[in-house]
Amino acid sequence: RIVNVSSEAHRFPYREGIRFDKINDQAGYSSLAAYGQSKLANVLHANELARRLKEDGAEITANSLHPGAITTNLFRHHNFVEGLVNMLGRFVLKNVQQGAATTCYVALHPRVRGVSGEYFVDSNLGKASEQGTNVKLARKLWDFSTGLIK
């Protein structure tokens, strides 16, 4: 089983989803949209990998998931947000063990055996965004990525 840890932030990338022609462009850069773009890429990668593995007849699954909002230092560069997380986080955010639960579920639970190309939230099937389920966008990301490593 292949598990891509994504985030509900995949719903909030740049308008075009993945900025293929501006991948390293600092103009118009937004740290939150860039984070959303990276999490969208995690979902798209899992979906395209699942499709390719199935096409090849491989008995390997690929899924993505949202682990939940966890008490981490993710917002360390956003002083106001980090302050809120530090102050209120222990009351509303998951601890590390709770945050790992969905990852462990998707990686190990017998109910997920054979399930591929899905998005999970709170150890249940979830629904990825419209961009996250866009087959053309997933293929374009795959081709773009393989082009970078040739």
Description:
This protein is of the alpha/beta class and 150 residues long. Helix content is 44%, strand content 9%. A 4-stranded mixed β-sheet has the order 1-2-3-4, sandwiched between helices. The longest helix is centred in the N-terminal third of the chain and has 25 residues, at 31-55.
Low-confidence stretches: none
Strand-residue fraction? 5-15%
Rg result = 16 Å
User: For the report, how would you describe the main beta sheet?
Assistant: 4 strands, mixed
**Mass-distribution shape:** flat
Elements, N to C (H/E): EHEHHEEH
Number of helices: 4
Instruction: State the helical fraction.
Output: 40-55%
User: Which strands sit side by side, in order, in the main sheet?
Assistant: 1-2-3-4
First-to-last CA distance: 26 Å
Kindly state the number of beta strands. 4
Give the class from helix and strand content and strand pairing.
alpha/beta
Query: Averaging pLDDT over every residue, what do you get?
Result: 90
